[in-house]
């Protein structure tokens, strides 16, 4: 698990933690099921704040992030978590 991320614990039955790395606008999600962190590329911080404020984290993830190609790391136009530019 990444140590430079400020993780926020949730009370969600699906999502254990949510983190955000502001310098590269990456969202990190840890699911209750496997406790592995997944990384998503955001275009800004608005989606992160909306996710935190949502009443159902699992529903928000499923409707707004899960299959949304704009959040796929392959489509990321800025640096990845290792500091390397994405191609």
TrEMBL record:
Where on the tree of life does the source sit, at the highest rank?
Bacteria
Domain named KTSC is located at 11-68
Question: What is the scientific name of the source organism?
Answer: Williamsoniiplasma somnilux
Any single Pfam family the record assigns to this protein: KTSC
Protein's UniProt name: KTSC domain-containing protein
Per its UniProt record, what InterPro entries does this chain match? KTSC_dom
